[in-house]
Amino acid sequence: MSLDLTSLTLRTPSGELLFAPLTLSVPLGDVVTVMGPSGVGKSTLLDAIGGHLTHGFCCSGSIKLNGREISTIPAETRQVGLMFQDAHLFPHLSVGDNLAFGLPSHIKGRAMRRSTVEAALKQAGLAGRYDDDSAALSGGQRARAALMRTLLAEPEAVLLDEPFSKLDSSLRDEIRHFTFSHIAARGIPALMVTHDEADAHVIGGRCIALKKPESD
Amino acid sequence: MNNDGRYLRLTVLSIVGFSLILPIFLGFWQTGRAAFGLFPALGRDTLSLAPWRELVMLPGFGSSLKLTLVTGVSATVFSLLLATGFCAAVHSRVTPGAGARMLTPFLAIPHAALAVGLAFVLAPSGWIARGLAPFVGWDRPPDLATVNDTWGLALIIGLMIKEVPFLLLVILSALTQIPVAKHVSAGRALGYGRGVVWVKIIMPQVWPMIRLPVWVVLAYALSVVDVAMILGPSNPPTLAVAITRWFNAADPGQILPASAGAILQVLIIALGIAVFVLGECLVRRVGRWWLRRGGRGLSTEPGLHLASVITVVLMAIGMLAMLSLLIWSLAWRWPFPQFLPESWSLRSWTNSSSGWQRALSNTVFLAITTAVLSVALAIAWLEGEDRARRGRAAWAEALIYLPLVIPQVGFLYGLNIAFLKIGISGDMTAVIWAQAIFVFPYVMIALSDPWRGLDHRTLDSAAALGAGPFKRLVKIKLPILLRPILTATAIGVAVSVAQYLPTLFMGAGRIATLTTEAVTLSSGSDRRVTGVYAALQTMLPFVAYLAAFLIPAFLHRNRRDLNGTIQT
Q1: Contact B468 A51 (CB under 8 A)
Q2: Same domain for B23 and B138?
Q3: For the ABC transporter domain, which residue ranges apply (chain A) (predicted)?
Q4: With CB atoms counted within 10 Å of each terminal CB, which end of chain B scores lower, N or C?
């Protein structure tokens, strides 16, 4: 059981190959860090796995999540969580409603759903902030709320796109620790794109470098 | 995956094609046939150039043509110059949001209402003359043709008061995409004066973004009917007014030369745009040569000041015009040299109440229906683009602008013939349909930028959380975009309220709106009653804009990122 990429290639709308064909297996509970020069298509790789490619980008090869081929199904059915450098909390929803947005439908009943969210808020150090405006949270609080929102949706894998690069250096260690301890507790595969060597070191997982393809 | 939403896109495209674009071509087809002698209803069924000969022989044709060209081109060119100069002078001092708020009243007021107000202000017995009277010693209105003057000066001023704010808005929004302050500093550091930096550095970047709106202004100024009826010379009038008269003349034989005139009107606009394109090529060549010479030309400051002063004066006259509508509607006795009415009364409102209530309810019904339909269609269109995860093709953008660069008088009469055939002429449906052709483009243009401004990462996040396309639309996009959606609706209401020709032709004179009544009343009769209609006509768009401001402010009062600063 894992996230498996097999001979994955990406082409831009102009037909340019972004990186050499990629084969990679991320076992459950592991974090793999992807590094590489800017413009090599690190974020586009995450878009391809999550199902968020812009029109014109072309993806070939196979993407399997726990044995299920996901490269051809819509993003909302892939169960792949996303984390960006900005939290991207929905501005029209309260903090709690942001977390509740992704709650799966098998958690039934208003009281049950509310208490699930409240528990997650407590874990994120946001107890009692259910009804607050999400714009009122600090940077660190936003990052924690965004992670909780992602995890409450019960993803089978998580993709992180430079998740800590906009945080103050003092906060970065704390949020990094918070993020990876929660992901590890779920035992799901995670793929992280970063520019920051420290991210890779601290996590200690595997690190791969995307390379430009041999010019053809 | 990129076929997502294909059915939605096909549906939207067929609605736009069949209900908004096809009628234009049908209208032109009918008008074109009549222009070349084919009009079976009058027993004319041989192809000929006779209607064109008749057109040229009609009394006043030559003067009308000349008048149209002079007023249309000069209103456009002066508006563009003033808007550019004013922007250069004040840009560093206003935020785009504040600018948009300042311009809103001028954008909201229907053309015809402003024209009525302006006639009140400029007339020999109007406010300006009353203001001067004590100093010049007039005890009766001076014998000057300050409105409906034969040169069309009042018409040009009236058009400019509406078009300068429109161009200002367009230029201000284009400027947000350019690092203006940095470019101006860089230019000034190299020894160029502020105005020269604008001409040599900023405007060449702005022009490609405002070219289409300038063409829209040109097309409008060359073919406007209601403003020209109220402010323009009456005998001979501008070509568009003359054509409207010939179409509605007692002698149905005039429909053929009128049709030829309608086709000529299209050619005039095409020619006007062609001249602007040629001018652009020329300026590009000469401009490059001029740029390379590196002249510092520090002497443009007076030009900027002049443009600012004229713009401010125009805006002030515009504000006076709006105010005068209300004052006239409440005035009772108001003899000449007095600056304010001697006695006030609500009688103009109560005496005409049966008339204006009917016109008001028709206008409100038409405005809400067309605006809501147009906004729904615009949302469906934009959602289709989102689902395909692709931008808009150039031909689709052209399709949106098409109704705005063609003359209304060119195809509406022909379209009415088509509507007669399917039996809906004179119907509310026909008027809604014809108005929507012009309301939809404005709504679409107003909504497109804010819609695309929504960060796609926010939507990707929602998808990653398991929200499908419909849930993303209803739970994420529509609430976040509530303010721009309501603003677009308000713009739709303003455009619908202002429509004159579509209501007149398609309603077959049976559907009275505030605009048709105000235009009719403005030619003579009682200023006080005209004031009632024009004041109501002005209030409706204001109410819509106010609602578009208050509703999101209330609903999002606890949402800091949505409740204030985002302006459209």
Answers
A1: no
A2: no
A3: 3-216
A4: N
